[in-house]
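Entry 14. Structure prediction run on the chain below.
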Amino acid sequence: MTRQRLGLVPAVLAVLAAGACSDPGQHGQGADTLGTNAGDYPVKVLNAYVERPEDGRYTPGENAKVFFTVSNTGDRDVTLTGVSSPAVRQMDLRWDEACDGTAESVPHIPVLAKASVPIPPGRVLAGHLPYYADAVGFTGEVLAGTTVPMTFTFDGTDAIKLDAKVQPREPIDAVAHYACIPVGVTAP
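Output returned:
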């Protein structure tokens, strides 16, 4: 190779390495997921999306999971008190607070200042975040590639409205058995 071409190798490698290190704010939800981001300083909902069923559509009465990340760059803790949508009968918050593989229905989820939802000490994230919302009972047909209007309500800050895209099903959509694992343990 010529010197000029050899000089490009480090630059190309640097660009590839930077692309491989996706935004840690995604917290394992896949940097390639085309979720919706919304909200103003200090609280934001990031990468919100509705999982897609195998057949590419939800019919009335079907349920789905809604994945998202809540980020709080402010100086005060806030609480996610609910998610609602006119497209479903109800939305239930789910949180695997102990990171033991069981997401329980909860009335609210804390969001720490300068952070996100807490995980237990000595644990690290290993896939999806340990919280999501269950969209229970779609009221009409919803197709993959369309959006579902949602409102995320908080105690301590303003509500955040967004249109969450119904995504194509990908392997990343499967919720890992454990969202968190002990520090030093390799994820399966």
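The helical segments are 3-20.
Filed with the rest of this week's runs.
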